[in-house]
Amino acid sequence: MIREDLRSRRIAVIADFVVNPGSALYGRQKAPPSSFMDALVERGWGVMKMPPHVAKPESCEALIEVSVGDLIDYRKNGYDVVIAAVEDLPQQGVWLDAMAVCFRKVGKDMPPVVTIRSDATAADADRLDGALAPAA
């Protein structure tokens, strides 16, 4: 049985750094997630967190392929998808180049990409709303 999604059928693909800015992976201590994350939750966005951008690419390839497959399925089933790329992180924090390769490999268009800063705020969440991808 399929349950109705309470997240408004919108998915934001975001960097691990945005969710876990205080992670030891990034050499920081106890930094809270930004108001950007709070805004996404308050607005009903679902979130797909990509592997940390500091991980070795070969350790993330399979996960990126699975994530792209999930995004294709979401769009096929009427979800809107937006990728929030972090301008000052390698691969924009979301493995953008690797995702593009996976989308091309299966002949599908990539969802819209919105560039945010690593210190994104609630105002940046407005830009995601403005870039909603039509369902595939």
Can you describe what's shown?
The model has no long low-confidence stretch (mean pLDDT 87). The protein is globular. It has helices spanning 16-19, 35-42, 57-76, 96-105, 122-130, and strands at 10-14, 46-49, 80-86, 113-116. The chain is an alpha/beta fold and 136 residues long. It has one domain: 3-Layer(aba) Sandwich (Oxidized Rhodanese, domain 1), CATH 3.40.250. The protein is 38% helix and 15% strand. The chain has five helices and four strands. Strand 3, helix 4 and strand 4 (113-116) form a beta-alpha-beta unit. Strands 2-1-3-4 form a four-stranded parallel beta sheet, sandwiched between helices. The longest helix is centred in the middle third of the chain and has 20 residues, at 57-76.
